[in-house]
Every structure is written in structure tokens, then in C-alpha cells.
Amino acid sequence: MIEVSSLSKRYGNHLAVDNVSFSIKKGEVVGFLGPNGAGKSTIMNIMTGYLSLTAGSVSIDEFDIMENPEEAKKRIGYLPEIPPLYTDMTVKEYLYFMYDLKKVNFPKKPHIEEIVRLVKIDNVYNRLIKNLSKGYRQRVGIAQALIGNPDLLILDEPTVGLDPKQIIEIRNLIARLGKNHTIILSSHILSEIQEVCERIIIINKGKIIADDTAENLSKNLSDDHSLSVRVTGSEAEIYKILNSVPGVKELRFAGSKEEGTVDYIIEPKENCDIRAAVSERLSERKKTILSFRSNEMTLEQIFLRLTDAADKGTQLLSKAKPESDEKTEEAPKVKIEIEEDGEATVIENKEEEEN
Amino acid sequence: MSAIFKREFKAYFTSPLGYVFLAIFLFFEDYYFVNLFSYGSPNNEIIFPALSFVVVLVTPVLTMRLLSEDRRQKVDQALLTAPVTVAGIVLGKFLAAFAVYALAFSPVILFEFIVTLVSAPNWLIFLNSWLGAMLIGGALIAIGMFISALTESPIISCILTLITFMLLMVLPSLASLTGVEWVSKAAEKIAFVNLFNTFATSVFHVVDVIFLLSVIVVFVFVSIRAVERRRWA
Questions:
Q1: What residues 24-63 of chain A have any CB closer than 8 A to a CB of chain B?
Q2: 3 state SS of A151
Q3: Segment (H or E) for A60
């Protein structure tokens, strides 16, 4: 669906996007994650044809955005960071205008009314856009992106500046849209990316520093693969049960925080998923699990770790290796190297390919 | 292009701008017509040169936000990421401004019909004068639109356009101060705002028509280039 190849964008002496490559398959929901100024919006603006590129290429359904922009743009619905709205128009007038501008073939009225119902703006349909709240403006922005039912939706920070209720509503809307569209979503809100996106591309200083699922990023980048468990029973009794689970490397007693319960930290052997076995063994012995969690890094920790490492040039990033997954198995497998000058460089994982 | 045209034309009348523009023209057109009519003159074509200062003073208001406002409000992101060409966007905007300008001159045609009821005006000269007004207006709008493509501020665009138009008007006077003949002649050619008089006193000057059409084409083209250039910045 989307092929971005060796994309670079230079503003004067500043290299905003540096040799970025990735591909996105039809139906994927991909999150662009990165600090402010990382280059997320620039990449999106280039992909939608708003900005030119300095080097590389972007193709949407095999239509190059520079060589065949009209065909490529027909396949894209774009919500920029600031919704591009004519505030002197009513919602209806604006959507009708965008319909005409995009030269859509669907019947006008039913198509627009369907979108209006989908994004829940029917109650403000005849109101002037300048009188709408930020949340509604954002929805109108999403509505205009949906006109023409494009396969690809590019949403640049769609929840920025919204209140928590509006954020949840927009997030739910994106999740619904994700069932029928390929979506690229940018955000610096980690929970949003984690909830909505199947795949995450982390960008820092114009470069991709990781590209994988949140789960795999956590698994591959975390040094800590241990599990914490709180179970009813005595220290010795639970130790005995847990120690009998195959794949357990080490057990650490973490105290008794509730009466009649014990906490244990379980260290598994390398590449060993013992969660099901632990749960089954405890259930067999009629022990109640009160809490059970992985101590792997959260997305927030991964993000901070990756971006800090890239900034400081420390060597801890070389493990961003995606696991085989139906949607991500063909995703670019990356390896990050920190150069002497402190720059993080993404190189293809040739070892993987050779294998 | 038609979607942009419709939106821009309508936008002039969702704010007082379009109404004020038309009202100013109507006021002066009425004033000159009533004067001519009361003196029994059938020469309505001289209304056009008389309106030249109104054109110079008021047309910048028509062009000031054509391309600058979209950029300021970031609406250009919707336009430039839609499956339309930059030329289509720019032409749509140019034609919308031109349509409002042409609308402002429509009462004069009505006045000519009124005069026809009681006298025998020279329609050929009148139509020639009207054509001149349209071409001069088109050229000014194209220049104003180009200036609006260079800035994000409609106010700055308005001021720069006004200065440019006034320079176009007074250029021959300034050039004559140099005392060099060819400079004066060149200035007279460039100062096309003064062609209002030429069109009102003679019938169809091909050279002037071609010159004004060229100005329109050149400035519409450079406006397109100015918008495209921003993508490469």
C-alpha cells in the first residue's frame, strides 16, 4: 500500500528527515511516535504531497506522490495537526466543498451524511465552524479526511488539545475506522499509540530508531523479562509450586503485602514463556492468583530509553528485532547502531535476511 | 477549480468585504452617472477612467487574502493534499476575485441601457471601455494575488498591493522627473492603470489588449510558482 524509500527532507542546513524507509501494508494501523520536532509531521506532509522531498520516494498504491500526485492523493485522507477548516463556512458547506474539491464519485448527500453520522457531528451540521469547540473541529477535520472513502488515513496528532472525554471519543472513532482503513497515526501520547496501533515506528531526529509491535519492542528491548505474582498461600508452599514449573530459572521472594498472600518475582529461562504454565500450576494446587504481571518495560519506558539513547549515543538499542507476526513479518527489520558522533543509525538486519 | 471558485466567490459575501467593495463602486458609479445624466451627456464610457482611482484603492482588499489567508490558517494543507493541481487552485481563486470585480462594474452596463432609452450612445466605445476596465482589473488582481502568495498576512499583502498599484499609477510622473525620454516612454507603457483613458477614447487597441492579457498570464503563472515553491522550501 505505502512504500517510503530513502526519504530525506532538508530545510536549508537542517536535515529534518534523514534517509527514512518503511512500508505499510493494506489494513495496518501504524503509529508514528516521537518527541516534538522529531520529523513525524514532515514525513506525513511529504507522504500527502503537501511538502516536496529532498531525496527518496513515496508511493501510495504504486503511484509516486511526486510523479503522479493526483492519483496518489485520491487514495489519501489527511488530517493535519491543525484541522484545515474554513471557519466562515458551516460544517455542511465545508464538507460539500471538500467533496467537490476531491472530485468524489459517490452520491453526494448520502455519502456526506454517512460520514457525519460516523464521526458524530450531525448535531452541529448546520453550525458555523468558527463557533465549534476544539473537539468538534477535530471531528470535522476527520470527516473531511473520510470524504471519498480513501483507503489510507493519515492523522497527525488527532487528539492534541482535547479534553480526556474527547480523547477517548476520538480514539474510539479511530479504532472503528481502523477496521476498514489503513491508518497512520502520529502522536507523542504513548497510551494512545499503544491502544490504537498494531505497529509502532519510533522517530527521533528525523530517523527511524525502532519499528515493531509494542509487545515486541518491549520484549526485545527490555533487560527484565521477569514476572511478578501475588498468590494466596505461604512462602514455602508457593516456592515449591513455582519451582516445579518448567522454564523457571530463579525465584525471588518479594514479601507479603497482604495477609495470607505472598509475592514472588519469577525469572524465566531465556526465550521461555512461562506465564501459562505458572497460572495452570497454581490453579491445579488451588492457589488464587491476586495479581500477575510482566515486569517488561512499558511503552513509555521504551520510548524514553530509545530517544535518550539516541540523544546520548549510548549502546543499548541494538535489539529492536520484530518477531514473526502475520501483519509485521514483512515489516522492515531494523537494527540500531550508535555512531561515534552520537547519531543513531538504522541499518537493515542483514543477519536476519541471510538466515 | 470550480469548487475553489464557488467557495472563494461565496466567501466574499459571508463577510462584509464583498458588500463593502460593491457598495463603494456603486456609490461612485452612481455619482458619475447622475452627473453625466443631468448634463445630458450620453458618454457613459468616461465613467471607467473616472473610476480608476477607486480601482487602485479598493482592489487590494479583494486580493489581500486570496492566497495568504489559507496559508495563515493552514487551510492550504487541505487544498494542496487534495487531488487538484496548484494551477487549478490559483485559477479558481483568481476567477472568483475577478468575478466580484466584474460584478462591481455591472451597474454601468445598466446605466448604458438607461441612456439608450433617451439618447443614442456609442456602444462600441462603451464596450471597448468596459473591456479595458475588465482587462486592467484582471491584471491588477493577478498582481495582487501574486503579492498575497508571498506573505501569510492579509494586511501586509493589502499594503504592499496598494503601494504597487499606486506606483503603477504615478510611474509616468516619477519617470518624467528623470528627464530621459525612453524612461518616460517605458514608464507610460508599464503604468497600465492609465490605459483606462486610452480604452475610453479609442476603439480596440490590439497591442494594449495583448499587453494586459500577458500581464494576467504572467502573474497567474508566477502565483502558481510561488505556491509550488513553498513546497520545496
A1: 45, 48-52
A2: coil
A3: strand A55-60
Are both A71 and A155 inside the same structural domain?
yes
**A23, part of any domain:** yes
* Chain B nearest CA to A168, separation (Å): 25
CATH of the domain at A238: 3.30.70.3100
Sequence-ordered strand ranges (E) for chain B: none
A87 within some domain: no
DSSP run (H or E) holding A232: strand A227-232
Q: What is the pLDDT of residues B90-107, one digit of tens each?
A: 999 999 999 999 999 999
Residue of B177, B176, B199 whose CA lies nearest to B188: B176
Going from the C-alpha of A144 to that of each of A100, A138, A173, A197, B173, the distances in angstroms are 11, 10, 14, 22, 53
Q: What is the reported pTM? A: 0.77
How many angstroms separate the CA atoms of B187 and B27, rounded?
Answer: 31
* DSSP character string of B14-42: TSHHHHHHHHHHHHHHHHHHHHHHHTT--
Closest partner residue to B77 (CB to CB) among A80, A88, A103 is A80
Which H helix or E strand runs over A348? strand A344-348
Cell of A44: 506525513
Does the interface ipTM go beyond 0.95?
no
